[in-house]
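A reminder from the course coordinator: this example appears on the midterm review sheet, so study it carefully.

Given structure:
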């Protein structure tokens, strides 16, 4: 499993989740990650936002099927409003997690990532314990089953991201265990 890049502000960490239109995959990941961060007691130190590389849905709610899938699973999908990625996201977030390779390329293009900034951009599923580095498939053109499959990927990957955030925040505060003494 991949580690998170170091945070820029001690004791705080900002995560951005990116897909194409910010109505299916990245808002699902945003809602789940935000809920899991709150459950872990990290919501005062970790912020989460999502966006899309495209502008088609800016200001709109998430896809009704994505919202229904989240609601059925016990999450609150009501607050999401689609946003578009711009160049400022690379400076505002400690890590930008893309849902697929095309979105990763879109992040690099929109933020003109060069040098060290590129190390803050990676695939969301780099943390997936089942298929590290896989892509989150876009369920938009499929049926409800696709949204359920995406939620399962998002939940297990999110658990690994929360565990990585706990380690990262402990490292920042100087409470690292034996594994975290080397932060290269």
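Designed residues:
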């Amino acid at each position: 499993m991949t580690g998170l890049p170091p945070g820029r502000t001690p004791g705080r960490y900002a995560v951005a989740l990116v897909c194409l239109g910010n109505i299916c995959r990245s808002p699902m990941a945003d809602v789940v990650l935000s809920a899991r961060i709150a459950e872990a007691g990290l919501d005062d130190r970790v912020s989460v936002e999502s966006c899309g590389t495209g502008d088609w849905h800016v200001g709109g709610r998430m896809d009704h099927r994505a919202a229904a899938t989240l609601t059925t699973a016990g999450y609150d999908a009501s607050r999401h409003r689609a946003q578009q990625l711009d160049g400022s996201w690379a400076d505002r977030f400690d890590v930008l997690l893309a849902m697929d390779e095309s979105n990763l390329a879109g992040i690099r293009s929109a933020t003109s990532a060069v040098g060290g900034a590129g190390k803050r951009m990676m695939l969301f599923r780099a943390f997936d314990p089942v298929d590290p580095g896989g892509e989150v498939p876009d369920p938009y053109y499929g049926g409800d089953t696709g949204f359920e499959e995406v939620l399962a990927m998002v939940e297990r990957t999110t658990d690994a991201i929360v565990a990585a955030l706990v380690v990262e925040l402990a490292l920042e505060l100087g409470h690292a265990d034996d594994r975290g003494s080397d932060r290269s």
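The radius of gyration is 16 Å. The CA atoms of residues 97 and 124 lie 5 Å apart.
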